[in-house]
Design goal:
With 706 residues, the protein is of the alpha/beta class. The protein is built from 25 helices and 30 strands. 30% of the residues lie in helices and 18% in strands. A 7-stranded mixed β-sheet has the order 5-4-18-17-16-6-7. The chain has a 6-stranded mixed β-sheet with strand order 24-26-25-30-23-27. α8 packs antiparallel against α11 and α8 runs parallel beside α14. The site of molybdenum atom has 3 residues, from loops.
């Protein structure tokens, strides 16, 4: 047996350390490894992650439409033929529509090297402004709010180990017990002390671990946070010295919360009893150290940015950010959700978390890329807006997708399918034939995590090494090779396929930016437990803790942001009397493209389901396990009823991990947050219907096989 290779799980942002032990017959076995984020623990997805490496379902050859005809099946093709089809389609679109006729959609699962190269490929090889990525659907609201308040967005501005020093923790809209199970170890102290507060419309395993569970109506966290601030002011819990010394803008926020957010009014808006609200504030304020953490439940709303701002305002009023053992943080989701948003695959950004509309940033990055600053396009459309424009007269007619399965994971999925089908050319690079790849004209097979070298940046801002443990199957190419080859065929050079060279270029491109990687080398990352950015030079130790002395704003002070509660984008009415909220289960990852192909995980959670309260089930005469239809304003989805008292009686919950008729995103609302452009994944209006015996339980996947 070969030596174990130290690496990290391919899935979520916790980036648990693991060993991969290559097996003689091919594939590998996962073994435990002690790492600061997981301390030897892994969840079910991590333990089974090697299964996909040798899965018969993985792609090992490029696929193209027979005769170039969308109505005919996808058939194997040589790399040369497939890439030529891509290049010909790109040239045609550029001739008709100019550079913005071609669009790129990336993902937060890509390594730093791939994310960086994809952004550069879009701006330099294609010259398009039309590039964005799935992180827009993930933590973009928290990123926007973090930048507003602190001048920089790093999900957690402190290492996870600091959680042990927090006497109390407020966890808003996170079901970490299912979404990052080994993370729960870091909350052991608060659980023991009875100082963990969880805000979630469902009594999730995470909420059940809390001393206090606030169970608001979906989409009302903004009012809840302002109500908590009101209590902090009225009960004299504001840290006046900290506010005076380290912040600006308090007076306006203070006036605003005093004026409108007394607990009894907040109770009417949120459904959270006023005494519970008061208790939560006193629990936090009574602790010497405390942390406020948000995740998707608070953020995936058309007011997600303002909601996070309200929780940041609360944290600032209590004097938490920038103090040891205290702070505000966002629990970033995807494996490289943090690095993926720093290196230029976002519509408005350049590497190093630089702004695309900043002339100095453009000049710096253009010099590294060897192009004229004026040749760099400006900011493009955000993820949903980009998908929504595809194939329209003003929008792109070619789309290249890397590491996202938008047919399952984007809001208003039916609309997204229509837009994809209106394209002249859809190119999907993936490991498996995802629902999105099934609709493509050209599918390119790429290497998996265990077959590539590179770096990932986890939820703490810690840069880690992903190591190659195995050779990819013959015929499969790394994404860097694919991008380099495509660039060369388009007449753009300087695209290395060597991840180390790409990382060294990324270091130069990021130098001097907010997310400065200049001093981070692969050797340094390998020597310890990773390096935290910013790290401006090789003698710099990296920055595990931000904001200890100053915030990253021009005056060094954190900014209070005045925000107001507003209703959800789509409220209930007589026809759609329930709220739908969506999220995750432990055993599946995201669109499920990977985990539904891991036999053990597929067997444990084989199909879509709908959680509903026993009172609602009684009213609608729905039995546990029967097929139900959730009907909304954009479509309907089906799933098995799971009757459980853990969900609010006015709310139903669906995970979004399945394709076909079980897709939660057939229902979700693409209403966007005005700042972050985040869609309202977490609340829309629906009704529930019994499907009846005559409708088959399994409706085939839309567009399957094409
Ligand atoms: N098993 C598993 N783990 C994952 C992933 C996965 O797909 N599967 N994905 C990874 C990624 S990319 C991400 S982003 C993270 C997400 O991690 P989480 O944010 O923990 O995941 P979600 O289940 O989307 O949402 C969390 C909770 O928000 C609650 N919620 C819904 N509406 C509201 C609301 O209006 N207010 C509040 N306060 N809460 C609400 C839901 O009931 C849910 O329990 O997980 C990562 N880890
Ligand atoms: N209703 C609802 N919808 C949601 C959410 C929600 O809570 N509710 N959450 C949103 C969130 S937070 C997120 S992050 C998105 C995620 O949703 P998606 O963007 O669809 O994410 P994944 O399912 O991880 O898709 C990754 C795809 O890329 C492939 N892949 C993996 N690694 C690589 C690689 O290195 N290169 C390439 N080319 N392909 C690769 C996988 O096989 C898979 O097909 O979903 C969003 N959608
Ligand atoms: S918690 Fe996340 S990183 Fe850790 S094993 Fe599970 S999926 Fe992998
Ligand atoms: Mo995410």
């Amino acid at each position: 047996m070969s030596a174990p290779v130290p690496t990290h799980c391919p899935y979520c942002a916790l980036q648990c350390g693991m060993h991969l032990v290559p097996l003689p017959g091919g594939g590998a076995e996962v073994a435990a490894r002690d790492f600061p984020t997981n301390r030897g623990g892994l969840c079910r997805k991590g333990w089974t992650s090697a299964a996909l490496l040798t899965s018969p379902e993985r792609l090992t050859t490029p696929l193209v439409r027979e005769g170039g005809d969308r109505r005919r099946p996808l058939v194997p093709a040589s790399w040369d033929e497939a890439l030529e089809r891509v290049v010909a389609g790109i040239r045609r679109a550029q001739a008709h529509k100019g550079p913005d006729g071609v669009a790129v959609f990336g993902g937060g699962g890509l390594t730093n090297e791939k994310a960086y190269q994809l952004g550069k490929f879009a701006r330099v090889a294609l010259g398009t402004s039309q590039v964005d990525y799935n992180g827009r659907f993930c933590m973009s609201s928290a990123a926007a709010a973090g930048t507003r308040a602190f001048g920089v967005d790093r999900g957690l501005p402190f290492p996870l180990e600091d959680l042990a020093a927090a006497e109390a923790v407020l966890l808003v809209g996170s079901n970490a017990a299912d979404t990052m199970p080994p993370f729960l170890q870091h909350l052991a102290a608060q659980r023991e002390r009875g100082t963990l507060v969880v805000v979630d419309p469902r009594a999730t395993p995470t909420a059940q671990a809390a001393a206090l569970h606030l169970q608001p109506v979906p989409g009302t966290d903004l009012a809840l946070a302002l109500g908590m601030l009101h209590v902090a002011v009225v009960d004299g819990l504001v840290d006046a010295a900290y506010v005076a010394e380290r912040t600006t803008g308090w007076d306006e926020v203070r006036r605003l919360v005093l004026g409108g957010y007394w607990p009894e009014r907040v109770e009417r808006l949120t459904g959270v009893p006023a005494p519970d609200l008061r208790r939560a504030v006193h629990l936090l304020a009574g602790a010497r150290t405390a942390m406020v953490l948000t995740a998707r439940g608070a953020e995936q709303h058309s007011k997600g940015t303002d909601t996070v701002s309200a929780f940041v305002d609360l944290a600032l009023a209590l004097g938490l950010p920038g103090r040891p053992g205290s702070g505000y943080g966002c629990l970033t989701g995807q494996g490289n959700g943090q690095g993926g948003r720093e290196h230029g695959q976002k519509a408005d950004q350049l590497p190093g978390y630089r702004r695309l509309d900043d002339p100095a940033a453009r000049a710096h990055v253009a010099a590294v890329w060897g192009v004229e600053p004026a040749s760099l396009p400006g900011p493009g459309r955000s993820a949903y807006e980009l998908l929504d424009a595809l194939g329209t007269p003003e929008g792109p007619s070619v789309l290249l997708v890397h590491a996202s399965n938008v047919v399952v994971s984007a809001p208003d999925a039916r609309r997204v399918e229509q837009r994809l089908d209106a394209l002249d050319l859809l190119v999907v690079t993936d490991l498996v034939l995802s629902e999105t790849a099934r609709r493509a004209d050209v599918v390119l097979p790429t290497t998996q995590w265990a077959e590539e070298d590179g770096t990932m940046t986890n939820l703490e801002g810690r840069v880690l090494r992903r190591r190659r443990a195995l050779d990819p199957p013959p015929g499969v190419r790394s994404e860097l090779e694919v991008l380099a080859e495509l660039a060369a065929r388009l007449g753009a050079h300087r695209f290395s396929a060597d991840p180390r060279r790409v990382f060294d270029e990324l270091r130069r491109a990021s130098a001097g930016g907010p997310a400065d990687y200049a001093g981070i080398t692969w050797e340094r990352v390998e020597a310890g437990d990773g390096v935290f950015w910013p790290c401006p030079d090789e003698d710099h130790p990296g920055t595990p803790r931000l904001f200890l002395d100053r915030f990253a704003t021009p005056d060094g002070r954190a900014r209070f942001v005045p925000v107001h509660h507003r209703p959800v984008a789509e409220d209930r009415d007589a026809e759609h009397p329930l709220y739908l909220t969506t999220g995750r289960v432990l055993g599946h990852y995201q669109s499920g493209a990977q985990t539904r192909r891991v036999p053990e995980l597929a067997a444990a959670d084989p199909e879509a389901f709908v959680e509903l309260h026993p009172d609602l089930a009684l009213r609608l005469d729905v039995q546990e396990g029967e097929e139900v239809r959730v009907v909304g304003r954009r479509g309907a989805a089906v799933g098995r009823a799971r009757v459980t008292p853990t969900v609010r009686p006015d709310t139903v919950f669906m995970p979004f991990h399945w394709g076909g008729a079980g897709r939660a995103n057939l229902l979700t609302n693409p209403a966007l947050d005005p700042v972050s452009r985040m869609p309202e994944f977490k609340v829309c209006a629906v009704r529930l219907e019994r499907v009846g015996a005559h409708v088959p339980a399994h409706v085939p996947v839309q567009g399957a096989g094409a």
